[in-house]
Amino acid sequence: MSGIDPKTTSLITEHLTFTPLEVVDDIINAANESVYGTVQQLENYLRSSGPSALGYVAEGSIAETDEDGKELFDDVAMNEIQQGLHMLEMLMESKVDKAYDQFEVYVLRNIFSVPPDIRDWMRLRHHDNINLIKATSINPEKDVTPESLAQTRRQLQETTALHRFLKADVSRNDKVLRSLRNLLNPTSKDDSPLAFLLDPNSTANDIKSFGEDTEFAAVQVKELHRVVAELKKQAIDVFGDNGESDAMDLDAPVPGGLREKQWNRALYVEKMSRRHLEKARGLSLTDDGALKNGGDLLGIKKSEVEVSTLEEVLGRTPQGRN
Fold first, then answer.
1. pLDDT tens by residue, 111-167
2. By the number of CB atoms within 10 A of the CB, which of 108, 124, 131, 303 ranks highest?
3. Does residue 24 sit within a domain?
């Protein structure tokens, strides 16, 4: 609009964060809404009054009514009412436009205005710590270099990439929030995996039985500890403190335990094996079970290979069942 200084408008817009014209437009729109509301209320009143009250029914005649007994307007009367309301609305709009055009000029020139003689000396709050003198002394040909332009370009690219990343992150977070809302507010409680949280009473019996099962399991664990302790004592009696279970261990057994029986059985197997080798095989053995005379078999000298073969055969011979 002529007569309004652009510098003043820019300063006021920067201070208020909105243009002065937006304020004027909002006021004019509010006035127009009031006009439209007035016309609508008038139309409702005319329709509710009926044709008889408005003089559309001649004397001695009866107007048409609906099922509820309410009088109905004919087409001629309705068209006349619509035309009258439309003309009234146009008249009020023209008056509002004329009046508020003057209001707009007055507001922009006298309210949203800064005198030119003090405008250049004004400093807004966000202008603090800004050296305007140094900013106006920049020489683009000297101060702007290819390196500074490249750095600015890189900063712009990084900022753009960060912006895209943040938008994608916001989108992912929105999906997660929608999923959580669907879990907490399902269409049906049966469809929700968190239904037991939404209706705790439905799982009261299950929780009670779970407590009983837990108590029973705790009792059984104590019983298992007791049985394991007894088995450990028996294992010590059978295998000794080191827990070894070698049946051919010839250490002194614990009297009265299972190990003593294994000891006696091992001696018996050793005795019967020696007897079998001496009588059935004809071997002459020492007290340690080795061949006498370095490998004599019934007084006949055998080679080392034959003795090794015989030992392999004896090694494959079953020693009895355990």
1. 888 888 888 888 888 777 776 665 555 555 666 778 888 888 999 999 999 999 999
2. 108
3. yes
The domain total for the chain is 2
Last residue of a domain, one of 77, 112, 133: 133
The whole-angstrom separation of Cα 268 and Cα 270 is 5
Among the candidates 72, 107, 133, a domain finishes at 133
- Those residues with Cβ within 8 angstroms of residue 200's Cβ, 6 or more apart along the chain or in another chain: none
CA 26 – CA 24 distance, rounded (Å): 5
In angstroms, the CA 176 to CA 187 distance is 18
pTM: predicted TM-score of the whole model, two decimal places? 0.38
Rounded to whole angstroms, how far apart are CA atoms 43 and 72?
A: 15
Structural domain contains residue 157: no
Q: Alpha-carbon distance 249 to 263, whole Å?
A: 8
Provide the domain limits for residue 264. 258-315
